[in-house]
Amino acid sequence: MADKQKIKVLVVDDEPNIVEILKYNLQKEGYEVATAEDGHKAVKTAIKFQPDVILLDIMMPNQDGVETCLQIRQIPELKHAFIIFLTARLEEYSEVAAFDVGADDYITKPIKPRALMSRIAALFRRDSKKEQEKGQIKIRDLNVDRSSYTIDKAGKTITLPKKEFELLYFLANNPNVVYSRDELLHNIWGSDVFVLARTVDVHIRKVREKIGEDYITTVKGVGYKFELG
């Protein structure tokens, strides 16, 4: 994991007590911390602060966490930031919505500081392993470049959010191999994060919308595979 002294965490929540507790515990661990109390301020602060991790409440005044996450994911300078949703809501659709807009993790309240620190550390460990896999994959008219997180299709550059890119890279790096949803969840999101299987379907659909329908095939009742051609 990177040196905590160099890691910036943005805490976004409209409850002052939660913000103070999280800020105290994060600073105690050596993280640099900034805070915001609503979605609008979160986006402005994120652009200025350039956080490595964003802890984002879902239910907030002015602008909720889902819309805030969506806006942040569209800012190129912040595309590598980890976003962890913090919420008291337990409905499945809230979790699906969170991962649908690019969340890396989802933690329900009340938040246990030690567990949160462990989840943050797990994200960096998993990211460190992926960084060691840097390289380019050229299949058919696609050039998938992990070093720059970009995709070139017949001379046109396509930008994908981090998890969509990692999903495409993993499948393209293992062409003609069928992976179940559980296997994709484990390889892309990791075993430290509980993610609904439906999240994989959502991300596959979004990747297809951007690169075309004829690269990733659904194997009914089994999973997905990348077609070598």
Descriptive notes:
The structure is a single chain. The protein is of the alpha/beta class. The protein folds into 2 domains: 4-130, Rossmann fold (3-Layer(aba) Sandwich); 133-226, Arc Repressor Mutant, subunit A, CATH 1.10.10.10. The protein is built from 8 helices and 11 strands. The protein has helices at 16-28, 39-49, 65-73, 92-100, 113-131, 162-172, 181-189, 197-211, and strands spanning 8-12, 32-36, 53-57, 82-87, 105-108, 136-139, 142-145, 150-153, 156-158, 216-219, 223-226. The strands form 3 sheets. The protein has a 5-stranded parallel β-sheet, with helices on both faces. A 4-stranded antiparallel β-sheet has the order 6-7-8-9, covered by helices on one side. The longest helix has 19 residues, at 113-131. The chain is elongated. The protein starts with 7 loop residues before the first strand and ends with a strand.
